[in-house]
Specification:
alpha/beta; Spore Coat Polysaccharide Biosynthesis Protein SpsA, Chain A; 14 strands; 20% strand
């Protein structure tokens, strides 16, 4: 098969039952095999696959490795595909979302990864939080998307229907060249989950490749399938992994001050959580910073190794202002508003 669509599953029997049939149906004509990599689920996921989806290839992992290492281990077992499609178990397809992206990537070997338009499954007129119409970051490493800035999600009114280079592609549905994924070492397994796709895409862009958004392709994502929005564990992972990503990938002359300013901004947000009496959220931010200090020696070694391969630190897809300031002070809550300030 030219393409392997791989769903990483952990206790997602209900998602597989509800959404896997749509994936199978809409990949039949796309020269794509469907694979479920199971992170040692304790529910009946594997039994369901065996009884109701015998055409789906199954990879069984011996424990829950999380998103990052789980995918690394699963994709290492797939050796004959040109492209990987990483697809969440709570993604619904209503059309062939794979072929338009593969066609685009076939046309330009410098495109290493690509994402579709990601819509909200529960409200299909809206973009979905985790990806929307392609991802970006601001100068301090805060992520946002076309169609979603912080907690403001836009309605899809065809305003983002142009092919565009972006900074990161959502792990909810990410198409990537298998050779690039393996050569770059895959996801950072120390992330466990959250932000790992942004780190991966940043490393890819530092090597001189492009990440694209393909509006011809469209998927529908439920979201929050593993950790709900606002979960302290998810908050911790996002803060910690974002800081790790900055240390690893920023250009040398900007690294120290950017990380320093980011930690001040994190501290301000922790103070807001404290005032709101959200003590678990306050603790999550502090825990994230202490985790960074602990991992700093290892991160600096990784940074040194990555630096040897970097071809380009300058990326126009990094927004050169603070998205926090633009959102809360300037009240610019749409991507189209930000474009006017560049």
């Amino acid at each position: 098969m030219k393409t392997s669509l791989v769903i990483l599953n952990w206790n997602g029997e209900k998602f597989l039952r509800n959404y896997l049939p749509s994936v199978i149906t809409h990949t039949l004509n796309a020269d794509t095999e469907v694979v479920v990599a199971d992170n040692n689920s304790s529910d009946d996921s594997l039994l369901l696959l065996e009884k109701e989806f015998p055409s789906v290839k199954t990879i069984r992992l011996d424990k829950n490795y999380g998103f990052a290492l789980g995918y690394n281990k699963a994709l290492a077992q797939i050796t004959d595909s040109e492209y990987f499609v990483l697809c969440n178990s709570d993604v619904l397809l209503k059309s062939d979302a794979v072929s338009p992206i593969i066609k685009l990537m076939d046309s330009d070997p410098n495109i290493a990864a690509c994402c579709p338009k990601i819509k909200a499954l529960k409200n299909p007129e809206m973009f979905e939080y985790a990806g929307a119409a392609g991802g970006f970051i601001d100068k301090f490493g805060y992520p946002f998307c076309k169609g979603r800035i912080l907690d403001t999600v836009e309605k899809d009114e065809n305003q983002y229907n142009e092919l565009q280079e972006v900074f990161w592609a959502s792990g909810a549905f990410l198409v990537i060249r298998a050779e690039v994924f393996k050569n770059i070492g895959g996801f950072d397994e120390n992330f466990f989950a959250h932000m790992e796709e942004i780190d991966l895409c940043w490393r890819i862009k530092n090597l001189g490749y492009k990440i694209m958004y393909c509006p011809e392709s469209e998927v529908f994502h439920l979201g929050g399938g593993t950790l709900e929005q606002g979960n302290p564990r998810k908050l911790f992972l996002n803060y910690r992994n974002s800081l790790k990503m900055l240390v690893k990938n920023l250009e040398p002359k900007k690294c120290f001050w950017t990380v320093f300013m980011r930690m001040i901004l994190d501290g301000l947000s922790a103070g807001v959580y404290l005032l709101q009496r959200k003590f678990s959220f306050f603790g999550a931010v502090l825990k994230a910073h202490f985790a960074l200090y602990k991992s700093l020696p290892k991160l600096l070694k990784e940074r040194k190794q990555l630096k040897k391969q970097v071809k380009n630190y300058k990326h126009k897809e990094i927004y050169n202002k603070s998205i926090i300031f633009e959102y809360f002070v300037k009240k610019r809550k749409k991507y189209s508003d930000l474009c006017q300030t560049k």
